[in-house]
Structures are given as C-alpha cells and as structure tokens.
Amino acid sequence: MKKLILDQRLSAIVDLVGKADIVVDVGCDHGYVANYLVEENLAKKVYATDISEPSLRKNERFAYNRGNDQRVISLLGDGLVPLRDKDFDLVIIAGMGGDLIIKILQESFDLVKDKTLILQPMTQRDQVRKYLVANGFKITKEAIVRDKNKFYEIMKFIPGKDLGSSCDYYFAKNLLEEKDPVLKEYLEHLLEKTENYIKKASQSQSIKAIKRRENLERQAKLYKELLDDY
Ligand SMILES: C[S@@+](CC[C@H](N)C(=O)[O-])C[C@H]1O[C@@H](n2cnc3c(N)ncnc32)[C@H](O)[C@@H]1O
C-alpha cells in the first residue's frame, strides 16, 4: 500500500496532533486525516464522524480499502453527538466556518471541556480563539499554511488559563514570536485588503461608512504594528 501523502493544510493538522490515543475527527469527509493518523501510528483509534451520509461513506470506503476499518470507526451524526458514550482524548474540527465550530463545541461542551482540540476554522478565527479562552482553554501552538492565495490557521487548545494580550485573539503568539514567514505574508495580504476596503468606505460620509472606516483603520494599524516587528 502506497504511503498516504497529505496536502500542506492537512499535514499541518496532523503535525499539531503529535501523538494521541483516541482521536475524533468531526466532519471527516474524505477521511485522509483519520486514516493517516492510524497508519502513521499517531493515534491508536480514530472516530471519524460526519453529518452527511455520502461524506461519511467516502471515509468508510477509504478506511476499508486501506485495511484501516478496525481502527477508523465511522459514525454518522451532528458534531460530537455520536460520541456521547465514547472515550477519546483529542478532537479535530477542520475546514468548517468558525461559527459552526463554536456551535458544535457549545452543544457538547461537557464532552470536550477536558480534551485537547485541534481546530482549523475557515472564518471567524478570532471568535474561535475568544470563545475557547473565555471557556477555560489556552492555545498551546498554532500553525499557518498558504495554498495559493488562501491562508489556513490551525490552532491547538488544551484546558487551562491563558492571560494573553487582545492581539493574541487575532494571530498566533508562537508564530509572531518565531517571525513565521507565512504569517508575515498573511499580514501583508490582510493589510492590502483592508486598505482597499478603507478606500471604498471613504467614498461615503454616512454614519455606517464612518464607523466601518474607523474599524478598518484600527485593523490596519494592528497589521502595520505587527509587520513593523518583523
Ligand atoms: C469542507 S469539509 C472538511 C473536511 C475535512 N475536515 C477537511 O478539513 O478537509 C466539511 C465537512 O464537515 C461536515 N459537516 C458539516 N457540518 C457538520 C456537523 N454539524 N457535524 C459533523 N460534520 C459536519 C460536512 O458534511 C463535510 O463533510
């Protein structure tokens, strides 16, 4: 059997897992992460769940064809609901909107409050960080990857207190400290986008446009300050 090769985003996700006993991959879809984890002995067992039956079947077929079906267990259902009676120690939720990730965690908070979480929200990344820090988690490490003009941030949370500055909700502390080159590209990309939005918002003098411009200017200032430190 040929070794499973993951793309950059999925590789960054499994790198942050490190090693775990029992992992849950919520919204597993293709099943690449779940199967990679057991094949590389990074997890003893993975519960791969999906709300969509066709998506879950993709993972089920993939696990069967690769001989992993005893260690990759497919469960159909919404979020962590199918995990109610199961033991696990780490949860991955990747490739979904930040609002959906927060909803999934909120709805099963009793199941996840003492677990390690690896999250890769497609949107509202600051909201995800805020929600978890407000609910007893701290960020231990983050990764950022670029695929063409898309940037993906992957966050690892464990239970604990984190007394970071408010800028930690927007960008990973470890990546800023390491002066990660992809984070620099991301900040430059955000600054350019924000400056274009400021130009557009400056064409109107309505109260809404003025408020929006003020907000955008605050964001641009943060990006510039962070870039100045590079
Ligand atoms: C874009 S795919 C991401 C797949 C994979 N996690 C990745 O990062 O490549 C999102 C998957 O999440 C599933 N999904 C969406 N809402 C869900 C929910 N509430 N519970 C479980 N799975 C969900 C979708 O059916 C889909 O298969």
Radius of gyration: 19 Å
Approximate shape:
elongated
Average of the residue pLDDT scores: 95
Query: Count of helical segments?
Result: 9
Oligomer: single chain
Number of separate strands:
7
Q: What is the helical fraction, as a range of percent?
A: 40-55%
Order of helices and strands: HEHEHEEHHEHEEHHH
Q: Give the termini separation.
A: 44 Å
Query: Strands of the biggest beta sheet: in what spatial order?
Result: 3-2-1-4-5-7-6
Largest sheet: 7 strands, mixed
**Low-confidence parts:** none
Bound molecules: S-adenosylmethionine
**Structural class determined from secondary elements:** alpha/beta
Classify the beta-strand content into a percent band.
15-25%
What does this structure look like?
The protein has helices at residues 8-17, 32-39, 53-65, 98-107, 109-112, 125-134, 173-177, 181-201, 207-228; strands spanning 20-26, 43-50, 72-76, 90-96, 116-121, 137-147, 150-159. The longest helix has 22 residues, at 207-228. A seven-stranded mixed sheet has the order 3-2-1-4-5-7-6, sandwiched between helices. It contains nine helices and seven strands. Helix 1 packs across helix 2, helix 4 runs parallel beside helix 6 and helix 8 runs antiparallel to helix 9. It is elongated and about 60 Å long. With 230 residues, the chain is an alpha/beta fold. It binds S-adenosylmethionine. S-adenosylmethionine (SAM) is lined by residues 26-27, 29, 49-52, 55, 78-79, 94-96, 100, 104.
